Structure formats: C-alpha cells, structure tokens
Amino acid sequence: TQDKTTTMTNIIILIWTLTLGIQVTQNPEIKSIKQGETVTICCKTSQFTSNCNDCVSWYKQKAGEAPKLLIYYINRLQSGTPSRFSGSGSRYGSDFTQTISGVQTEDTGDYYCQSYHYINSKSIVSLWCTFGGGTKLVLAGPTVKPSVSLLPPSSLQISGDSAALLCLLSSYSPQGALVSWTLDGSEVTEGVVTSAESEQDGRYSRSSVLTLSKARWEEGELYVCRVTHDGAPHEASFHKSRC
C-alpha cells in the first residue's frame, strides 16, 4: 500500500511538473494585412503534443465575445469555419500553423493556438490544455503616420519627489506602434508605463508615461520618446534647458 501511495505521489508530481513547464508560443503578436492577402500564424509547443482527437486547436476571439473554435485536430475545420481557413502540422509534433487564404474584413480579431496533452498510466489519467499568447490580425488601410507629442512634467510635479513625462501618439493607422524612451542617449525602461492601443473610426492612439525620481530628472537634459510604426521611426524630444 505504501509503495502504491509513493508511486501515485510521484506520478502526480511528475504531471504537475510537466504541466507547469509546457509553453505555447505564437508569432507574430500583431499582423497587419490587406484584404484578399494570405496570412499564416505560427504556433510552437515546448513539448510534443499527444496523439489525441484535439491535440492542437485554433480559436478566434472578437472583443467582448467568447472564443470560437475554428480548427481542431491540427487541420480539421469546425462546422461553420470558412474554407479559406486551414491548419497544418504533424501528430506528436511541436510546430503548427493556421493559414487564412484571401483574408476578409470579418477575419480581424485575436487568434489563439491551444495544445492538448494527455497522460494515461495504470495509476492515473491526466489531460490538460495550454493556450498561446495570441495573434492579433488587423486589416491594413492606407498608412497614416502617428502624431507624436511629448509633454514635460508640470512645475508642481517638479517641486515634489518625482517627475513624469507624457508621450502621446494619435491618429495613426494601422495599429502596432511601439514606444521607447531615451535619456541623454541611453534607453530607459524603468518607470515606463505604456497604454494599450485604442481605436476610433479606424485610427489608433496610445500614450506612454516615463516617471523619474527628482534627482534623476535634475541630472538629465535630453528626453526623447521614440516611436516605431509600420517600420518607420518617429520621435518627439524635450530639452530641459530650453524650457
């Protein structure tokens, strides 16, 4: 009895170790594509999938809606999934793809890869699912570069213990603008908070705040908010001595 209990405990520990160690990665995180083009989303699992009826599935989610199953068992289309969708990969594999041939406007949304793992022994049966981080698919219209502005801290802030600079990005398309900060030529990551992108009438906006200690603010001179959008660089800068 003790041997059986020990065996059961070891199996449970092994299962939890495997479960916690499994990772599912997707790329790209954001994909901008024109209507009618073809897009492929990649999914990689850190362990081989199981030989089962649902080893890899693909889901689509619209904002405010529940995820919808599109593809199961690697390449089988769920009822109602348009034929322009397809899946590929191999059983017991770790690399999988979902392809949309001839993207339509209704195909925008977030796509998730789900891997299914299964253990069956004499003592215990366990199965679990792991989702990838998602891929956001957006339709690209005409490229509109962002308007970038940098607002320095107020005099009231400067008199306190910290100072915050605000970088505003507005009226750009498509989404996917990335923001970074430099102080006197060196990149700064600590104290940076960047919002999610918001959309209105097909144009996007976001903001980023850099918060510094009073001492670091007083030492610095040139603050730059750098933006990368659609592969092109943009920036706004602030010289403290010129204010």
Q: What is the mean predicted local confidence, pLDDT? A: 85
Helix content: 10-25%
Sheet having the most strands? 7 strands, mixed
CATH architecture of the largest domain: Sandwich
What do we call the CATH homologous superfamily of the largest domain? Immunoglobulins
Distance between the termini: 79 Å
Q: What best-fitting shape do the alpha-carbon axes yield? A: elongated
Radius of gyration of CA atoms, rounded to a whole number:
24 Å
Protein name: Ig-like domain-containing protein
InterPro entries: Ig-like_dom (IPR007110), Ig-like_dom_sf (IPR036179), Ig-like_fold (IPR013783), Ig/MHC_CS (IPR003006), Ig_C1-set (IPR003597), Ig_sub (IPR003599), Ig_V-set (IPR013106), IgV_Light_Chain (IPR050150)
Domain Ig-like: 22-125, 146-239
Signal peptide: 1-21
Explained architecture:
The structure is a single chain. Helices cover 12% and strands 51% of the residues. It is mainly beta. The chain has two domains: 2-139, Immunoglobulins (Immunoglobulin-like); 147-242, Immunoglobulins (Immunoglobulin-like), CATH 2.60.40.10. Strands 2, 4, 5, 6, 9, 10 and 11 form a seven-stranded mixed beta sheet that branches. Strands 12, 13, 16, 17 and 18 form a five-stranded antiparallel beta sheet that branches. A hairpin with a 6-residue loop joins strand 4 and strand 5 (68-72). It is elongated.
